[in-house]
Design a protein that fits this description.
The complex is a heterodimer. By secondary structure, chain A is mainly α. Chain A is built from 18 helices and two strands. Chain A is 76% helix and 1% strand. Chain A starts with a helix and ends with a helix. The longest helix of chain B has 16 residues, at 173-188. Chain B is of the alpha/beta class. Chain B has three domains: 3-237, 3-Layer(aba) Sandwich (Rossmann fold), CATH 3.40.50.300; 255-334 and 423-525, 3-Layer(aba) Sandwich (Rossmann fold), CATH 3.40.50.300; 349-421, no CATH class. The chains are: A mainly alpha, B alpha/beta.
Chain lengths: 431, 526
């Protein structure tokens, strides 16, 4: 017995003796590489940490977590019995789709496309120092113009789709340009004009659609909606049909993301964008440096409107959304996508690329809201969560900016526990 | 003597810069204690800590030997610490009385007891010999009366430690004398004063002791009677400073700027703020527009730079009528402009130093190509100007300009405008808030420009600057030019009389537009 133990012992000893140098050898080779990788990662993060983008990102994450926690608490209070299932569906969001993950992601992207554009619309205006609350109106007018071309522009043939998209952009441009003009020329605050133009736009569109000329040609009298746009005016599926089957996803998402990249490029890399940003940061200094600040304000609002208008066009020209077809319901209600653009822009700290991801998140929990309905929760809970996130994303920016102070506070707290006050003061002084 | 306030080992850390580095300061009861230092030396930071605007990173503040914790200006008030800010904190449309009692209104059931307040304040006015019209509105009274209002505000709150942050920057020489007397009176009544200023003469005149800061550290505290101006400036800057600027004689060239019968009407008062002003500025001369703040010089500056539009008259730059041209046209065609209000016009505070230094150039080649911004030359420009003009910041080109000290912000503007190499340099309040070292530097740069054959038009409210730098002086009073004289032909006292409107040579516009007489004089001198 003892022999056996000895044998086993020796065996392990030998093994150990063989393994250790080998491991050491390998380790010696790997270590510098690992160190290099580690340093590179650390450098990347430390560089990223210094940027304001990082602060904004941290702030958004904080806001989202607080919003979700509050939402979960709320669900628990409302319906404790179904809370677990409800919360699961809230978190799963996109993945609730019965047709599987692929279809779920497809639907997510499909819903995101117009929201990215309204988010960009608000974010672009923010970057140039303007608060565009009128994205809804611009979205509606853009949508209307796209519908007109999409239905009446038969003679355009295969150009009909492009013409419809351009018409939508033109409509939004116009609807943003008017408040921009008022702001630039008469210093009328853009919040007031743009919010009023939401109503003006909506009633104007509804009024025109029910006018004698358009009623017979564009509107389906039986359900008070516009008829579907012509096949030639619909957005192509591209390769998304195979990539995300059963989702109805079309190339609109590509256009939306492309636009986001373009706007990022415009704002950060071009003279034109720099001038617009300068107007936003300090109108007087921009003027002093030779920028025509009135033209800047006008163009900012108009471009912002154009983005929202493009969103409206992409929405209405998309193939078979929500099984309702591509139709606009003539109701005296302001369309929500424009307003959804505001929390998206805030959450993204007005960063055009951030807007894309913020939109994915908002679409994700909006899908969750739909899924939660079947277990007895109203989907408005999602609106509450978004509202809380919106509230805290403003607040969390302050938090992250003072991150250093917060750390120091906890630091002090720890120290105080350990040592006497006097000693602590002396140490603080040494730093 | 009893120490009323002690600041012990105060440190204040801002990102990238240690603004106060173990600063010790003690204020004795009944003294005037000057705080002297270069721009960005940490004076304002230290006073902001004492007044509760910032919290110190470490260190403590003692009043009468007891540690006090000042978290806000309200706390400071409670401890008897009051401050007259460089930019007054007054409500323009309130009367002086209402401004004084604001926040501390004596009341009965919520109704303000104005009568009692008025009686009390009148008593204070008599006691300290402060002349104010309690029923006048702030917007209608002079700057010096506004300042007296601020002083009364502190007295009414029974503050016994008074901080004056560059109080003389906005006053005429006569008013400065009055303020000095007031400060002496205050200390006689047992108040203690901390006096921030860049003007060494003032320190020598009224202060008991001086604490000098350099780069956040205390260099030393000295008794005024045991020191000299030279010694103080050496302590402050770390080298000898030349007080008398050496200038070569003027070499007049072509007319660069010609202003004919320029008039602007104020939208509010319907008065002519700039009233039929005509003058010329030639290559190689520094023309300075002197006057007390608020006599139309600011508006004249705005008119010339294109920030406001003229109601009549004509501005000709390098032979081109620019009266109706855009600001960009002026910028690109020979006008450099150091603006009066650096935060409103001069800088985009949220943006970084490099972009601010390229503020007027980014639309030109090589800073852009096909409408795309080219970052490399912008940063090269920035690095060069930072080195040439000694602009100090936490993170170099990438620091947010809003985080730089006021003096360094001003240096950035001066660097940008001088580097533009324009035929006309319009410099308004160039050295506001700069320390002696930086003032010397800025003035030398401006004189260098003049010697290179540039035309310089300065607008300044500070007489020292006017007397030191200019070749010719135009005095402005109530929108009109009341005197046109060569700098060497006039004394400060006489200039003060013109500025106050007590004296006036009616100068006809036609005569002004032909300053031949003076040129001949100059020629003779040479």
């Amino acid at each position: 017995m003892s022999n056996l133990l000895k044998k086993i012992g020796n065996f392990f000893k030998n093994l150990w003796a063989k393994i250790v140098p080998f491991v050491k050898k390998v380790w010696a080779k790997i270590l510098p590489v690992l160190k290099k990788i580690g340093k590179a990662i650390a450098k990347f993060f430390s560089n990223f940490k210094k940027t304001e983008g990082f602060n904004a990102f941290l702030g958004a994450m904080l806001a989202i977590s607080i919003g979700l926690i509050m939402g979960i608490l709320l669900m628990w209070i409302i319906k404790p019995d179904n809370a677990t299932e409800g919360i699961t569906r809230l978190i799963k969001g996109t993945l609730n789709n019965p047709n599987g993950i692929k279809a779920g992601i497809g639907v997510l992207l499909l819903n995101s496309a117009p929201l990215i554009l309204t988010g960009l619309s608000v974010a672009f205006a923010f970057k140039t120092g303007l608060f565009n609350i009128g994205a809804s109106g611009q979205y509606t007018v853009g949508l209307f113009c796209a519908v007109l071309v999409g239905i009446l522009g038969d003679s355009l043939g295969s150009f009909q789709w492009i013409a419809a998209v351009l018409a939508g952009m033109a409509g939004g441009f116009l609807w943003g340009a008017i408040p921009g003009l008022f702001k630039a020329r008469y210093n009328v605050h853009e919040v007031i004009t743009s919010i009023m133009f939401n109503y003006v736009g909506m009633y104007l569109v509804n009024g025109l659609l029910t006018s004698n000329f358009l009623k017979t040609r564009v509107v389906d009298g039986s359900n008070n909606r516009t008829i579907k746009v012509d096949q030639a005016a619909r957005t192509a599926y591209g390769f998304f049909d195979e990539l995300f089957p059963n989702s109805g996803l079309d190339i609109s998402i590509l256009i939306a993301i492309g636009t986001a990249i373009f706007i990022y490029f415009l704002l950060n890399k071009t003279v034109f964008g720099r001038e617009l940003k300068a107007v936003g940061l300090n109108r007087h200094a921009a003027k002093y440096s030779g920028v025509n600040e009135k033209k800047g304000i006008f163009l900012s609002m108009a471009i912002s409107g154009m983005l929202a208008g493009l969103g409206g066009a992409l929405f209405i020209l998309g193939p078979n959304r929500f099984n309702l077809g591509n139709a606009y319901a003539i109701e005296n209600v302001i369309l929500t996508p424009g307003f959804d653009g505001i929390p998206i822009a805030l959450l993204a700290s007005s960063n055009p690329i951030g807007v894309v991801f913020a939109t994915f998140f908002v679409s994700h929990i909006k899908l969750a809201g739909t899924a939660m309905q079947s277990v007895g929760f109203v989907k408005e809970i999602v609106d509450i969560i978004i509202a809380i996130i919106l509230y805290f994303s403003a607040f969390s920016l302050i938090l992250t900016q003072n991150l250093g102070n917060i750390k120091k506070f906890f630091h002090k707290f720890k120290r105080k526990k350990k040592t006497q006050d006097v000693a602590f003061e002396a140490k603080e002084g040494d730093e | 003597m009893q120490k009323i306030i002690e600041m012990v080992d105060i440190c204040k850390q801002f990102p990238g810069i240690l603004a106060n580095d173990h600063v010790n300061l003690d204020l004795r009861k009944g003294e005037i204690h000057a705080l002297l230092g270069e721009n960005g030396a940490g004076k304002s930071t230290l006073m902001s800590i004492l007044f509760g605007i910032y919290a110190q990173t470490s260190g403590k503040i003692l009043k009468n030997g007891e540690v006090i914790n000042i978290k806000s200006p309200n706390d400071a008030n409670r401890y008897g610490i009051g401050m007259v800010h460089q930019h007054f904190k007054l409500v323009e449309v309130f009367t002086i009385l209402d401004n004084i009692i604001m926040g501390y209104e004596p009341n009965k059931y919520g109704f303000i007891k104005r009568k009692e307040a008025k009686a009390e304040i009148t008593k204070l006015c008599k006691q300290y010999d402060l002349d104010v019209d309690l029923d006048a509105k702030i917007q209608d009274v002079s700057v010096s009366m506004q300042q007296r209002t601020e002083i009364l505000k502190m007295l009414y709150r029974q503050n016994d430690i008074l901080i004056f942050d560059e109080p003389t920057a906005v006053l005429t020489p006569q008013e400065i004398n009055q303020l000095m007397i007031t400060m002496k009176n205050l200390t006689k009544e047992g108040k203690s004063i901390i006096f921030i200023t860049h003007k060494l003469d003032e320190i020598m005149a009224v202060c008991d002791r001086v604490t000098v800061l350099r780069r956040g550290k205390v260099i030393g505290t000295v008794e005024t009677k045991n020191t000299t101006k030279q010694q103080l400036s050496k302590m402050m800057v770390g080298r000898d400073v030349v007080f008398n600027i050496q200038k070569k004689p003027t070499q007049l060239g072509e007319v660069v700027l010609e202003v004919n019968n320029l008039t602007a009407v104020s939208a509010r008062t319907k008065k002519n703020v700039v009233d039929d002003v005509s003058f010329r500025v030639r290559q190689g001369e520094i023309v300075c527009i002197a006057g007390v703040d608020g006599n139309g010089q600011s508006e004249l500056g705005l008119l010339l730079s294109g920030l406001i539009k003229a109601d009549s008259g004509q501005i000709i730059l390098d032979g081109v009528d620019i009266t109706h041209k855009s600001i960009r046209f002026r910028n690109d065609n020979g006008m450099s402009h150091i603006p009066e209000d650096r935060h409103k016009h001069g800088l985009i505070l949220e943006d970084n130093l490099a972009n601010n230094l390229a503020l007027k150039k980014y639309h030109l080649s090589p800073f852009q190509k096909y409408g795309l911004i080219n970052k490399k030359p912008i940063y090269e420009l920035s690095e060069r100007l930072i080195a040439d003009f000694d602009i100090r910041s936490g993170e170099g080109s990438k620091s947010k300009i809003g985080k730089l000290s006021g003096g360094n912000q001003q240096k950035a503007i001066i660097a940008r405008e001088i580097d533009k190499d324009s035929s006309l340099l319009l410099a308004i309040q160039t050295v506001r808030g700069l320390d002696v070292g930086a003032v010397e530097f800025a003035h030398n740069k401006i004189i260098e420009e003049r010697d290179k054959g540039k035309a310089v038009l300065m607008i300044s409210f500070e007489l020292d600057e006017v007397m030191d730098v200019s070749d010719r002086i135009l005095v402005m009073y109530e929108g009109r030019i009341v005197k046109n004289v060569l700098a060497k032909d006039i004394e400060v006292e006489e200039l003060g009389l013109y500025m106050a409107g007590a004296k006036e040579d009616i100068v006809y516009p036609d005569k002004l537009s032909e300053p031949k007489l003076e040129e001949e004089e100059v020629a003779k001198d040479e």
